[in-house]
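Researcher: If only I could read backbone structure tokens as easily as an amino acid sequence. Walk me, if you will, through where the backbone shape changes along the chain. I have put the entry right below:
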Amino acid sequence: MLSKYKFHILLHVIIFMWGFTGILGKLIHLDAYYIVWHRVLIALVALGIALVFMRKPLKPANFKSFLKIAGVGLFVVLHWMTFYKSIQLSTASLGILCLSTATLHVTWLEPIIMKRKFSWIEFLLGTLVIYGIYFVSSDFDANDKEALIYGLLSALFAALFSVFNAKLAQDTPSYQITFYEMVSALVFLTIVLIFQGDFTAELFQMTMSDFLWLLFLGIMCTSFAFLATIEVVKRLGAFTVSLSINLEPVYTILLAIAILNEDEMLGSHFYIGSAVIVVVVIANAVIKYYLKAKANKKLTNLSS
């Protein structure tokens, strides 16, 4: 019975791990940028080893292709840097909730980058997300408002690398994209730390607990999750995966309540805003599915 649904189970294990990445921003007692640096390094090494064993070619098609991937890698690392900064300034729940607004940015980025027709339905849903953010932030203090800014920036960077990755994936294997984005991210963040004077011995000073959580974050939540997602998409289809991923904020908030007791720090306005945002994000995926199904049916009728 379980074998029939093993890829569905695997998908939700992956989403659960992604939801847990926000919790790790609180459990790992390192600066946000240090967390990201170790995450990228561990993910890069683990992914490289996995791809060698899988005998996947790592050489990019050409130097121009490499530069494009490296450029998108900057958006990846900026997304993680602002994401963990947001969490450390406030709560894991707020950080992951802000990330849900990436859908709003995709609405205006896709028509520009992918030359897709502008969707007024997505724009309307995006305005509802803003309404949800208004509710979430109504009881915030100065620290929370700063966290909100970092969280919303994180969502913008997430949308940018998602849309650009979709464009790159048209002619470049996804594992190559991820590998070289990790390379670019590591180089960029190392330069940032050097210029800030933070690339010191302190970067490597951590407790055994922090080290084990970083291994879990880099290997399981990043490298394994990426490779497993490729297989899950092949078996279940892109829509099932994208719809299910919208449950990530729900998992994170539930984990934050269970592990970090964040329910004691969050008021009713937060939950009202959260509900609005999560419902809008899921509704967006469902509407896209039905519009796509309708378009496919119309094409089938025309060709018959």
Q: What stands out?
A: The CA atoms of residues 9 and 159 lie 26 Å apart. The chain is about 80% helix and 0% strand. The chain has a mean pLDDT of 83.
